[in-house]
Amino acid sequence: MTQEQKKTVLVIEDERPLLEAIKAKLISSGFEVVTARTTEEGLNFLKDGVNIDVIWLDHYLLGSETGLDLVAILKKEESKWRNIPIFVVSNTASPEKVQSYMHLGVDKYYTKSDFRLDQIIGDIKQFLSTKNTE
Amino acid sequence: MFEIYGFPQKKNPTVEEFLKFIHPEDITAVRDKMQNVKKNTDSYELIYRIIRVDGMTRWVRVHAKTTLDPQSTPLKIVGTLQDVTKEKEVDQAKSEFVSLASHQLRTPLSAINWYTEMLIAGDAGNLSEEQKKYLQEVYAANHRMVDLVNSLLNVSRLELGTFTVEPQAISIKEISQSVLGELKPQIVQKNLHLKEDYDESIGLYMADPKLMRIIIQNFLTNAVKYTPENGSISISLMKDIENILIKVSDSGYGIPKDQQSKIFSKLFRADNVKEKDTEGTGLGLYIIKSIVSESKGKVWFESEENKGTTFFVTLPLSGMQKKDGAKQLS
């Protein structure tokens, strides 16, 4: 991935060690990364006009809102961010919540402890390249 | 009994009067058990809920013998009845604790997984061969811990009854082949002879793919793990007019005769395999038994020490029944 082609991932994850690991692996895989630990911080990047290509989202976050609350906002009909791909990566979302995420239109759900970082990032890369060729 | 059921002592109730107090969700299981008693001398144990005369729900354990008439209709039940409500509540609290603790464990395990993965990949600089080898051990051990946590979560979901069953048309053959694909490195390393036999007329079967995978994965993993080098393992899928039959055989260490009755118990591992392998959790067969029972199927085995074991599972041709719950098994 060359400099001008670099895609930006917004990572929203409350656990700092995990956030740092995701960020480091994404950077070494050729992405630009911005990070947030609450839905509000994440939404602010979008409101500030930062060009986000993909959102990496945990379910339980700092603050009172969960990832599901953010997705509900982003996927509203009138939302200008509704086409940003969302990958939910969480250890704790129940099947009902996973179904709600999928129903709202997120692109993939992963149980954190069952997947390697390079698997998830590989999927994101593949998703973006398919999207680009469409 | 009169005290547990909460009715004034007058005379012994008839079998039908006795059954009237059983919780509607448990009555079928109790009737099935009583009708499956083949001989008057067979005793059985059952745990189920009753709704007392005053409307309270209690858990009871019955250890009894049923006397049958020539048409095999239950005439008389003789045995002991115990109120095990407290025991059940403690079990429930324990399962809830395990579930909560397991969820909390997943976050640090994810951190260990991901940082080790990055170190092995050289993301923080080059490693010596020895450093890489040590980290691979950390990574593998952490995976065992993730598997254990997933198994504990499954057990707590099964025991709390909070798991979902979402049947869909699946190919058991494809699940088996996928599991065998994952096990291929071990099968090759141990030079095991593998035989697969699938009745193609079975086609698609209505079952929850996750649950079916757990059943087949546990059987095949055990077969590979507990069979010495150059041995053989096999899986076959058949059907009769009522059931499908899954059969998994190995020429492995077998289950000692005196421990066969405990093999489906939670956390139990037979002495002969504990001496050879430290990795098992004793949860796999317990989970299989719980899933198969929930699916109105049967599981049993034949085994001889140092000759091998064959596990059999039958599941009704009609498939698994849908069950709503809070959690899927993982």
Structure description:
The complex is a heterodimer of chains A (134) and B (330). Chain A contains five helices and five strands; from the N terminus they run βαβαβαβαβα. The longest helix of chain A has 17 residues. Chain A has a five-stranded parallel beta sheet with strand order 2-1-3-4-5, with helices on both faces. Chain A is globular, with a radius of gyration of 14 Å. Chain A has a single domain, classed as 3-Layer(aba) Sandwich (Rossmann fold), CATH 3.40.50. Chain A has 134 residues and is α/β, with parallel strands linked by helices. Chain B has three domains: 82 residues, 2-Layer Sandwich (Beta-Lactamase); 73 residues, Helix Hairpins (Orthogonal Bundle), CATH 1.10.287; 149 residues, Histidine kinase-like ATPase, C-terminal domain (Heat Shock Protein 90, 2-Layer Sandwich). Chain B is 42% helix and 23% strand. At the A-B interface, α1 of A face α4 and α5 of B.
Uncertain regions of chain B: pLDDT < 50 for 5+ in a row?
Answer: none
Percent of residues in helices of chain B: 40-55%
CATH architecture of chain A: 3-Layer(aba) Sandwich
What is the radius of gyration of chain B? Answer: 23 Å
**Helix content percent band of chain A:** 40-55%
Q: What is the helix tally of chain A?
A: 5
CATH architecture label name of the largest domain in chain B: 2-Layer Sandwich
Biggest interface, chains and residues, is: A-B, 20 and 21 residues
Arithmetic mean of pLDDT of chain B: 87
Strand order of the largest sheet of chain A: 2-1-3-4-5
Multimeric state of these chains? heterodimer
